[in-house]
Amino acid sequence: MHASGETSRPLVALLTDFGPESWYAGAVKGALLSTGGELLPVDITHGVPAQNILAGAIQLAASRDTFPPGTVFLAVVDPGVGGERRGLAMKVGDHYFVGPDNGLFGEVLLRAGGDESIEIVHLDRPELWRETVSPTFHGRDVFAPVAALLAGGMPLADCGSSCDDPVPLDRPFCAREGDELLGQVLLVDGFGNLTSNILAQDLASFLGGADPARLCVALGEHRLSGLLGTYADAPADTALCLLGSAGFLEVAVVGGSAHRRLGCGPGEWLRVSIDDSAEGEAR
Amino acid sequence: MHASGETSRPLVALLTDFGPESWYAGAVKGALLSTGGELLPVDITHGVPAQNILAGAIQLAASRDTFPPGTVFLAVVDPGVGGERRGLAMKVGDHYFVGPDNGLFGEVLLRAGGDESIEIVHLDRPELWRETVSPTFHGRDVFAPVAALLAGGMPLADCGSSCDDPVPLDRPFCAREGDELLGQVLLVDGFGNLTSNILAQDLASFLGGADPARLCVALGEHRLSGLLGTYADAPADTALCLLGSAGFLEVAVVGGSAHRRLGCGPGEWLRVSIDDSAEGEAR
Amino acid sequence: MHASGETSRPLVALLTDFGPESWYAGAVKGALLSTGGELLPVDITHGVPAQNILAGAIQLAASRDTFPPGTVFLAVVDPGVGGERRGLAMKVGDHYFVGPDNGLFGEVLLRAGGDESIEIVHLDRPELWRETVSPTFHGRDVFAPVAALLAGGMPLADCGSSCDDPVPLDRPFCAREGDELLGQVLLVDGFGNLTSNILAQDLASFLGGADPARLCVALGEHRLSGLLGTYADAPADTALCLLGSAGFLEVAVVGGSAHRRLGCGPGEWLRVSIDDSAEGEAR
User: Fold this and answer.
1) Which chains does A contact via 3+ CB–CB distances below 8 A?
2) Are the CB atoms for B215 and B241 separated by under 8 Å?
3) Is any Cβ of chain A less than 8 angstroms from the Cβ of B34?
4) pLDDT, tens digit, for every residue of C171-202?
5) Cβ of residue C279 closer than 8 Å to a chain B Cβ
6) Is A135 an interface residue toward C (CB < 8 Å)?
7) Would the CB atoms of A230 and B19 count as touching at under 8 Å?
8) C17-60 confidence digits (pLDDT tens)
9) Chain B: residue nearest C51 by CA?
10) What tens digit of pLDDT does each residue of C115-139 get?
11) pLDDT over 90 (residue C102)
């Protein structure tokens, strides 16, 4: 769509918990743009719940797929800033990631395809960072300069020493328990939809060949039946289960908020089972 | 201001109800930017109240004017995603619009100038979309790819079949009732200003030649007098009426929030009349 | 990092109190981008507390440093829009600033280095503005066009008449009172950190040569000891003092919100003293 020889600016996609009311994200973008290279900062979100590494990790993994090869993801949810925790940069497939080594990239690593190469370094070359590094703002002073260098074409290996033990993400996994699949709510989005930790493939393997209409989900005191395709498949104000766009089983209320209607949020247990009764129809 | 021959990137302006705390807008921007073309995504807002088509339609129409010719507006407030509702793309004057066919573009169409050409298509060419289309995320999988193609120069007619029956916007209009003009509050902004559904031209026609200072507005239990030019025309903490920047009659409180001070929000009735008494001065 | 002769787009960095849920910032970006020049709008934040000039001024000064030379800062916190207050544009060092003359640029001016040149004009050339100027939206109609012109290379002096009396920022300064340094909380960020009005250099001069570990800070009913380097230097849930990334003394709670935990917000007094007792250790 553009003249040959002309190249797009490399993208630096930002995901942080700085809050939309803060100047912090602006300072990071300034640091990215003052390195002299051509790059385009793209805000994914700055509204990850404060210091919630798990939420940030899930959102980062969910948003990764649409970005073009070469994109550098600069992710900062960093309760341990300035302490012992290391910084890292990594290449997974054709994407780069820069941020704190605290599990924030753990979901990306978990989901990395078998055919995707993974290369990780610790950020231990201060000469690449801003001249003065604030002990409370590595997003601006350490991660942004490194992200800009990667966007400008610096090889990953030049950003630091090879690392083979990144901190894993501490997150609950769903598990079989007798006839049930036991999961938890991980996130609530702005619509009040509840994202669980049950990946589409976990659910498919649990269902085996069973009709998805026979799915039963117990959530708090509520009991939902059937796996629907989309919000529009049920009448208004109905609670339903579907596979959400982050790749997980999701509970939603049509035209409303499942979070408020069902009184459930992160941490709530989901018990998934298969209805053995004859009819097998979604209620 | 730039060397001749060099062209600006086409703009894709985004307006959604995804919420600033969500990764959804980021995924849409990734999808826009991975199509290979040169374009610049510009966030209008991702804070339209969830699933509020009316609010989105008003904000879209209000923000349209400043954008340059060729801008593609990608708007997503989409409670019916994945169901029967169609997607559409349209050209109004020199602007393009892409999103769900649910009334979201209705205010733009209502306000289109008599000299503006209007051309509308339904999105029925899946080969233009992302390979896999999630039934819950057409913003990313359907609308973004089409918006990117339009930004890259694809003719509108190539995006789908001609459409002459877009879903109209379901919104209250102001109406004459005896000596009064009866309107409603449509929106509250971040300052607490109340935007009504009374357009400047409706008000002018209602006033006829009468002095705007003789305007009376009853709102809940409150009674406001006179049409002021700007917030600075009244003392602090005063409630006043003016023509807001969205083109509608607006109620504001100087240095405060009309929403909180007057206890009024969307749906509240406004009764507008002309003061017949002698003095005719703003109180 | 890019071919010689190729230049980066000039940046226009935006800081406003429009709120992330509003279309106002989008309209301003449209106005910037419709001037025909090549420029890149960069959102710092649109979440400055409504009409809070002080908060905007502090955040603007804090975020300025990372942006490259030539950046134009378009800042709008403008309770007096449409009234007597003037608009201004200024050049401080290599940065430009455009917005209302109400103190919003006062902190930038206060902190300007002795070696930085300062040049200020009032915006009194309507022929540079949008054709129709709404009395309630100068961000879109006056400031954006001027910012775009400056980004495109127009000399500051061509934007208006020279000004030597910009409205100063009305903000509390910290002061010595006997053996104490008396300050106030200016801002709360999204993590609940409390930013005071005590600049790092004020604190250093107050401490003289004393060990920072002997610092005592009384805040409401709370008493904090020692100046730590970063959030990671104390156990979880501990309240601590450190020098924040905005350049001010900051009170934080490790892994939590000082705002909620200490029950303190903007305006709260801080009494800073030096512990004369023998041990001099952070508690």
Assistant:
1) B, C
2) yes
3) yes
4) 999 999 999 999 999 999 989 999 999 999 99
5) no
6) yes
7) no
8) 999 999 999 999 999 999 887 899 999 999 999 999 999 999 99
9) B255
10) 899 999 999 999 999 999 998 999 9
11) yes
Nearest CB to A66: which of B17, B51, B140? B140
Nearest to B98 by CA among B114, B112, B78, B84: B78
- Min Cα distance A49 → chain C (Å) is 9
Tell me the C-alpha to C-alpha distance, in Å, between residue C65 and each of A23, A130, A253, C103, C115.
12, 12, 46, 19, 15
Q: What distance in Å separates residue C276's CA from the closest CA in chain B?
A: 46
Please count the other Cβ atoms lying within 10 Å of the Cβ belonging to residue C235: 9
Closest listed residue to residue C154, CA positions, set C212, C210, C214, C89: C89
Q: What are phi and psi of A199, to 5 degrees?
A: -70, 155
Least CB–CB distance from B232: residue in C34, C83, C153: C83
Report chain A's mean pLDDT, rounded to a whole number.
91
Q: Taking CB atoms and an 8 Å cut-off, how many pairs form between chains A and C?
A: 125
- Name chain A contacts of C257, Cβ cutoff 8 Å: 50
Give the Cβ contact number of residue C84 at 10 Å: 6
DSSP state letters, B4-36: TT--PPPEEEEEESS-TT-SHHHHHHHHHHTTS
Q: What is the pLDDT of residue A283?
A: 43
B chain contacts of residue A192, beta-carbon cutoff 8 Å: 50
- Look at residue C141 and give its three-state secondary structure: helix
ipTM of this complex: 0.92
The three-class DSSP label of residue C148 is helix
What is the spatial distance between Cα B127 and Cα B146, in angstroms, rounded to a whole number? 10
Residues B90, B65 contacting (CB under 8 angstroms): no
Q: Which residues 6+ apart lie within 8 Å of B249 measured at CB? A: B183, B196, B198, B199, B200, B203, B217, B227, B241, B242, B243, B270, B272
> What does the pLDDT read at residue A8?
67
Task: Give A-chain residues touching B40 at CB under 8 angstroms.
Answer: 40
pLDDT at residue number B223: 94
Residues A137, C273, C63, CA angle at the centre, nearest 5°?
A: 25
Question: Quick check: A52 contacting B, CB < 8 Å?
Answer: no
Average pLDDT over residues C259-272: 95
Q: What would you measure as the largest C-alpha separation in chain A, in angstroms?
A: 70
